[in-house]
Amino acid sequence: MQTTKTSKTSKKIAVVLVSGGIDSATTLALAMKQGFDAYALSFDYGQRHSQELDAARRVVRHLGVARHVIIRIDLRSLGGSALTSDIEVPKGRDPGTMSSEIPVTYVPARNTIFLSFALAWCEVLGAEDIFIGANAIDYSGYPDCRPEFLAEFERLAQVATKEGTEGRAHYRIHAPLIRMTKAEIIRAGAAAGVDFSLAHSCYDPSLEGLACGSCDSCLLRRKGFQEAGLPDPTRYVNPRSSA
Fold first, then answer.
1. What CATH number does the domain containing 125 carry?
2. Is 84 domain-assigned?
3. Per-residue b/e over 138-153, b at no fewer than 16 CB within 10 Å?
4. 119-135 pLDDT per residue, tens
5. Is the residue at 242 inside a domain?
6. pLDDT by residue (tens digit) across 58-110?
7. pTM to 2 decimals?
8. Structurally, how many domains does the chain consist of?
9. Is 3 inside any structural domain?
Protein backbone atom coordinates (compact mmCIF):
# COMPACT_ATOMS: atom_id res chain seq x y z
CA MET A 1 0.00 0.00 0.00
CA GLN A 2 1.52 3.30 -1.08
CA THR A 3 0.00 6.49 0.22
CA THR A 4 1.46 9.96 0.60
CA LYS A 5 0.95 11.51 4.00
CA THR A 6 -1.59 14.29 3.86
CA SER A 7 -1.63 17.48 5.86
CA LYS A 8 -4.46 17.96 8.28
CA THR A 9 -7.34 20.02 6.94
CA SER A 10 -10.57 21.35 8.35
CA LYS A 11 -12.25 18.17 7.08
CA LYS A 12 -11.58 15.37 9.56
CA ILE A 13 -10.19 12.12 8.19
CA ALA A 14 -11.21 8.76 9.59
CA VAL A 15 -10.15 5.24 8.72
CA VAL A 16 -13.23 2.99 8.73
CA LEU A 17 -13.04 -0.81 8.83
CA VAL A 18 -15.49 -2.16 6.26
CA SER A 19 -16.22 -5.89 6.08
CA GLY A 20 -19.26 -5.72 3.83
CA GLY A 21 -21.80 -6.58 6.54
CA ILE A 22 -24.66 -4.62 8.08
CA ASP A 23 -22.65 -3.33 11.04
CA SER A 24 -19.67 -2.01 9.09
CA ALA A 25 -21.92 -0.48 6.40
CA THR A 26 -23.88 1.37 9.08
CA THR A 27 -20.67 2.45 10.83
CA LEU A 28 -19.29 3.84 7.56
CA ALA A 29 -22.50 5.78 6.89
CA LEU A 30 -22.54 7.18 10.44
CA ALA A 31 -18.89 8.28 10.21
CA MET A 32 -19.65 10.16 7.01
CA LYS A 33 -22.80 11.63 8.53
CA GLN A 34 -20.63 13.00 11.36
CA GLY A 35 -18.59 14.91 8.78
CA PHE A 36 -15.58 12.63 8.46
CA ASP A 37 -13.79 12.14 5.17
CA ALA A 38 -13.89 8.35 5.26
CA TYR A 39 -11.05 6.12 4.09
CA ALA A 40 -12.40 2.58 3.96
CA LEU A 41 -10.18 -0.38 4.87
CA SER A 42 -11.05 -4.02 4.12
CA PHE A 43 -9.11 -7.26 4.32
CA ASP A 44 -8.70 -10.29 2.11
CA TYR A 45 -7.47 -12.46 4.97
CA GLY A 46 -8.13 -15.96 3.66
CA GLN A 47 -11.79 -16.05 4.69
CA ARG A 48 -14.00 -18.88 3.38
CA HIS A 49 -15.64 -16.85 0.63
CA SER A 50 -15.23 -13.65 -1.37
CA GLN A 51 -18.84 -12.44 -1.12
CA GLU A 52 -18.14 -10.17 1.83
CA LEU A 53 -15.36 -8.36 -0.04
CA ASP A 54 -17.63 -7.95 -3.06
CA ALA A 55 -20.22 -6.51 -0.67
CA ALA A 56 -17.64 -4.14 0.86
CA ARG A 57 -16.86 -2.81 -2.62
CA ARG A 58 -20.56 -2.29 -3.34
CA VAL A 59 -21.23 -0.51 -0.04
CA VAL A 60 -18.19 1.76 -0.38
CA ARG A 61 -19.09 2.65 -3.95
CA HIS A 62 -22.71 3.35 -3.02
CA LEU A 63 -21.77 5.66 -0.13
CA GLY A 64 -19.04 7.41 -2.12
CA VAL A 65 -16.02 7.23 0.19
CA ALA A 66 -12.77 9.07 -0.51
CA ARG A 67 -10.70 5.89 -0.92
CA HIS A 68 -11.04 2.15 -0.40
CA VAL A 69 -8.01 -0.06 0.25
CA ILE A 70 -8.18 -3.85 0.46
CA ILE A 71 -5.15 -5.39 2.20
CA ARG A 72 -4.23 -9.02 1.65
CA ILE A 73 -3.04 -10.99 4.68
CA ASP A 74 -2.96 -14.76 5.08
CA LEU A 75 -4.72 -15.78 8.28
CA ARG A 76 -5.68 -19.07 6.66
CA SER A 77 -2.11 -20.28 7.14
CA LEU A 78 -2.75 -20.04 10.90
CA GLY A 79 -6.26 -21.52 10.84
CA GLY A 80 -8.04 -21.90 14.17
CA SER A 81 -11.42 -20.66 12.94
CA ALA A 82 -14.34 -21.91 10.87
CA LEU A 83 -13.82 -18.79 8.73
CA THR A 84 -10.17 -19.53 7.92
CA SER A 85 -10.08 -23.35 7.83
CA ASP A 86 -12.27 -26.35 7.05
CA ILE A 87 -13.96 -26.35 10.47
CA GLU A 88 -17.73 -26.60 10.06
CA VAL A 89 -19.71 -23.40 10.61
CA PRO A 90 -22.17 -23.87 13.51
CA LYS A 91 -25.85 -23.56 12.59
CA GLY A 92 -29.07 -22.99 14.50
CA ARG A 93 -27.59 -21.62 17.75
CA ASP A 94 -29.98 -19.80 20.05
CA PRO A 95 -29.30 -16.11 20.95
CA GLY A 96 -28.44 -16.93 24.58
CA THR A 97 -25.71 -19.35 23.53
CA MET A 98 -24.36 -16.87 20.98
CA SER A 99 -23.63 -14.23 23.61
CA SER A 100 -22.32 -16.62 26.28
CA GLU A 101 -19.90 -18.80 24.30
CA ILE A 102 -17.08 -17.95 21.93
CA PRO A 103 -17.87 -19.89 18.74
CA VAL A 104 -15.50 -21.50 16.23
CA THR A 105 -16.22 -18.62 13.83
CA TYR A 106 -14.03 -16.43 16.05
CA VAL A 107 -10.83 -15.62 14.12
CA PRO A 108 -7.93 -15.39 16.60
CA ALA A 109 -6.94 -11.77 17.25
CA ARG A 110 -8.68 -10.58 14.06
CA ASN A 111 -9.83 -7.18 15.29
CA THR A 112 -6.44 -6.56 16.92
CA ILE A 113 -4.79 -7.22 13.56
CA PHE A 114 -7.29 -5.11 11.62
CA LEU A 115 -7.06 -2.18 14.03
CA SER A 116 -3.27 -2.30 13.86
CA PHE A 117 -3.40 -1.82 10.10
CA ALA A 118 -5.96 0.95 10.52
CA LEU A 119 -3.69 2.67 13.05
CA ALA A 120 -0.75 2.47 10.67
CA TRP A 121 -2.81 4.06 7.91
CA CYS A 122 -3.88 6.81 10.32
CA GLU A 123 -0.23 7.70 10.88
CA VAL A 124 0.35 7.89 7.14
CA LEU A 125 -2.77 9.99 6.53
CA GLY A 126 -2.33 12.27 9.53
CA ALA A 127 -5.68 11.01 10.86
CA GLU A 128 -6.57 10.32 14.48
CA ASP A 129 -9.92 8.55 14.21
CA ILE A 130 -10.72 4.89 13.54
CA PHE A 131 -14.25 3.55 13.19
CA ILE A 132 -15.13 -0.10 13.77
CA GLY A 133 -18.54 -1.78 13.68
CA ALA A 134 -18.03 -3.73 16.90
CA ASN A 135 -21.18 -4.60 18.83
CA ALA A 136 -21.59 -6.10 22.31
CA ILE A 137 -25.37 -6.61 22.36
CA ASP A 138 -26.57 -8.73 19.39
CA TYR A 139 -23.31 -10.49 18.56
CA SER A 140 -21.64 -13.92 18.49
CA GLY A 141 -19.67 -13.62 21.74
CA TYR A 142 -16.36 -12.47 20.23
CA PRO A 143 -13.95 -11.09 22.87
CA ASP A 144 -12.59 -8.45 20.49
CA CYS A 145 -16.02 -6.84 20.09
CA ARG A 146 -16.19 -5.72 23.73
CA PRO A 147 -15.80 -2.13 24.99
CA GLU A 148 -12.94 -3.26 27.27
CA PHE A 149 -10.90 -4.41 24.29
CA LEU A 150 -11.49 -1.22 22.31
CA ALA A 151 -10.56 0.97 25.30
CA GLU A 152 -7.30 -0.96 25.75
CA PHE A 153 -6.44 -0.69 22.06
CA GLU A 154 -7.04 3.05 22.16
CA ARG A 155 -4.56 3.31 25.03
CA LEU A 156 -2.10 1.13 23.15
CA ALA A 157 -2.33 3.38 20.09
CA GLN A 158 -0.89 6.29 22.07
CA VAL A 159 2.28 4.45 23.06
CA ALA A 160 2.69 2.32 19.93
CA THR A 161 3.03 5.13 17.37
CA LYS A 162 5.48 7.90 16.57
CA GLU A 163 2.71 10.49 16.37
CA GLY A 164 1.24 9.38 19.69
CA THR A 165 4.44 9.24 21.70
CA GLU A 166 5.55 12.63 20.38
CA GLY A 167 2.23 14.14 21.44
CA ARG A 168 1.11 15.15 17.96
CA ALA A 169 -1.86 12.79 17.80
CA HIS A 170 -4.53 11.50 20.13
CA TYR A 171 -6.08 8.42 18.60
CA ARG A 172 -9.74 7.63 19.08
CA ILE A 173 -11.46 4.30 18.44
CA HIS A 174 -15.09 4.94 17.56
CA ALA A 175 -17.58 2.09 17.97
CA PRO A 176 -20.94 3.82 17.47
CA LEU A 177 -22.86 0.52 17.44
CA ILE A 178 -21.32 -0.98 20.57
CA ARG A 179 -24.47 -0.68 22.73
CA MET A 180 -27.09 -1.02 19.99
CA THR A 181 -29.31 -3.98 19.21
CA LYS A 182 -29.30 -5.30 15.66
CA ALA A 183 -32.71 -3.72 15.10
CA GLU A 184 -31.38 -0.33 16.27
CA ILE A 185 -28.37 -0.73 13.97
CA ILE A 186 -30.61 -1.46 11.00
CA ARG A 187 -32.83 1.53 11.72
CA ALA A 188 -29.78 3.79 12.11
CA GLY A 189 -28.25 2.50 8.90
CA ALA A 190 -31.46 2.95 6.95
CA ALA A 191 -31.77 6.52 8.25
CA ALA A 192 -28.16 7.21 7.22
CA GLY A 193 -28.74 6.00 3.65
CA VAL A 194 -27.41 2.43 3.75
CA ASP A 195 -28.80 0.09 1.08
CA PHE A 196 -28.77 -3.21 2.95
CA SER A 197 -29.36 -5.19 -0.22
CA LEU A 198 -25.70 -4.45 -1.02
CA ALA A 199 -24.39 -5.87 2.27
CA HIS A 200 -23.54 -9.50 3.00
CA SER A 201 -23.63 -11.22 6.40
CA CYS A 202 -23.67 -15.01 5.95
CA TYR A 203 -20.70 -17.07 7.16
CA ASP A 204 -21.50 -20.00 4.89
CA PRO A 205 -23.19 -18.85 1.66
CA SER A 206 -23.97 -21.07 -1.29
CA LEU A 207 -21.82 -21.02 -4.43
CA GLU A 208 -24.43 -18.67 -5.89
CA GLY A 209 -23.97 -16.27 -2.97
CA LEU A 210 -27.26 -17.07 -1.25
CA ALA A 211 -27.31 -16.78 2.55
CA CYS A 212 -27.61 -20.07 4.45
CA GLY A 213 -30.22 -18.64 6.84
CA SER A 214 -29.04 -20.58 9.90
CA CYS A 215 -25.51 -19.48 10.86
CA ASP A 216 -25.15 -16.99 13.75
CA SER A 217 -24.81 -14.03 11.41
CA CYS A 218 -27.89 -14.93 9.35
CA LEU A 219 -29.98 -15.50 12.48
CA LEU A 220 -28.95 -12.17 13.99
CA ARG A 221 -29.54 -10.35 10.71
CA ARG A 222 -33.01 -11.88 10.24
CA LYS A 223 -33.96 -11.15 13.87
CA GLY A 224 -32.78 -7.56 13.45
CA PHE A 225 -34.92 -6.86 10.40
CA GLN A 226 -37.95 -8.47 12.04
CA GLU A 227 -37.57 -6.36 15.19
CA ALA A 228 -36.82 -3.21 13.18
CA GLY A 229 -40.07 -3.71 11.23
CA LEU A 230 -38.21 -3.41 7.93
CA PRO A 231 -38.14 -5.85 4.99
CA ASP A 232 -35.10 -8.11 4.88
CA PRO A 233 -33.52 -7.87 1.41
CA THR A 234 -31.35 -10.95 2.00
CA ARG A 235 -31.54 -13.74 -0.57
CA TYR A 236 -31.63 -17.02 1.34
CA VAL A 237 -31.03 -20.57 0.14
CA ASN A 238 -34.44 -21.43 1.59
CA PRO A 239 -36.75 -18.46 0.98
CA ARG A 240 -38.90 -19.49 3.94
CA SER A 241 -35.93 -18.79 6.25
CA SER A 242 -36.44 -15.08 5.61
CA ALA A 243 -40.01 -15.17 6.85
1. 3.40.50.620
2. yes
3. bbbbbebbbeebbeeb
4. 999 999 999 999 999 99
5. no
6. 999 999 998 999 999 999 999 999 999 989 998 888 766 776 678 888 899 99
7. 0.90
8. 1
9. no
